[in-house]
Amino acid sequence: MSFDNLGLRAELVRAVSEKGYDTPTPIQSQAIPLVLEGRDLMGSAQTGTGKTAGFTLPLLQRLAATPPPQQGRRPIRALVVTPTRELAAQVHDSIVNYGRYLSLKSTVVFGGVSINPQKQKLIRGVDILVATPGRLLDHVGQRSVDLSKVELLVLDEADRMLDMGFIHDIRKVLALVPKQKQTLLFSATFSDDIKKLASGLMKSPALIEVARRNTTVEAIEQTVHPVDKSRKRELLSFLIGSERWQQVLVFSRTKHGANRLAGQLVADGINAAAIHGNKSQGARTRALAEFKSGKVQVLVATDIAARGLDIDQLPHVVNFDLPNVPEDYVHRIGRTGRAGREGEAVSLVCVDELKLLKDIERLIKREIPKRVIEGYEPDASIKAEPIENGRTQNRNRPKRNSSGNGKRPSAKFNPKSGPKPGQKSGNQRSQGRRAAA
What we know:
- This protein is of the alpha/beta class.
- Helices cover 36% and strands 14% of the residues.
- It has helices at 10-18, 26-36, 51-64, 85-98, 116-124, 133-141, 158-163, 167-176, 192-199, 232-242, 255-267, 281-293, 326-333, 354-364, 426-436; strands at 41-44, 78-81, 106-109, 128-131, 152-156, 182-187, 206-209, 220-226, 248-251, 272-275, 298-301, 316-319, 343-349.
- Helix 2 (26-36) packs parallel to helix 3, helix 3 crosses helix 4 (85-98) and helix 13 (326-333) crosses helix 14.
């Protein structure tokens, strides 16, 4: 099947072809016809399988079928809500690229940058708005957006938005858009909480699941290197040099850890930069651009960026720290092996993380091959210690996880403790909002 067979306009097929795509992925071939029919849709696919184009292409076609008003301000007819700044920018880039031959206008709004330039674009009028929840509600409060004419609503990475505590913001947004609209929920995974949310939001939605929940892409070669915690950075530098890796995305558990690791790699002679929620939007955008261009060889990130980084043909992902949440492993390594290409995911695992590794293997229903690197054999006499989440101690306030992933931490990692799935506190919601909006 080709994109010509999906019923797309010639302008869209031309734009897709110019991006180098000829054959739609399974999520695209199934989702696009349903969205073109006007159906509500829940689409689940492994990360990196093209779900963004699965909703942006039919969205553009449906809007293009009705010309915008010749006079007056263009109403917002399509709203796409995403959990993070990077993902919002990625989705908007797709809309701009695929809609280049259409007379539609779009913009993106998120926190971390001045709100005034965003207001000016919104006041001039756009057909499509891509936004993070916090900044979107800021614009609602300042009356720079009117959502009463929205025809299509897309909630992208809906499970991540719930994880980050955005459920109340999402409900506020839902109260501002018309009841009569087409609603699309796209995500790498769908939790039972998401399905519950959809049941009160959507009308007989079509359900597409092109792979079972929480599976990893087969094209990704996964390897675990056992190593002592104190020698992880040394081993990472050795692998980068000996394997001649030129573009490596490295995941750290905490923001402080990401900064420290990037600095250590620079000291080792490796051009590295860090990206996380405490960085200014300008610094995040610059670091990502330099990484994509090859100026920066290693990008060290926290999980806040795990679903928002779309890097073409990224060859290597490294888990310097295993994530506390097993599902985050799937999203991390999904930054490589995209669109059917091969990729390599390496995890540096110390004795403290063996329980986390077992949780991940249980989730993905496979054992990850282990390979000890000569000269970096782990010391069998070292005993496991509880994993610290990198919080700042404060006597008067609840302690928070500096990774910005919206999960409630404990002083020592205990996989059997913590809130029940879907249970959020006010502190979790406010933290997630600051990290992503």
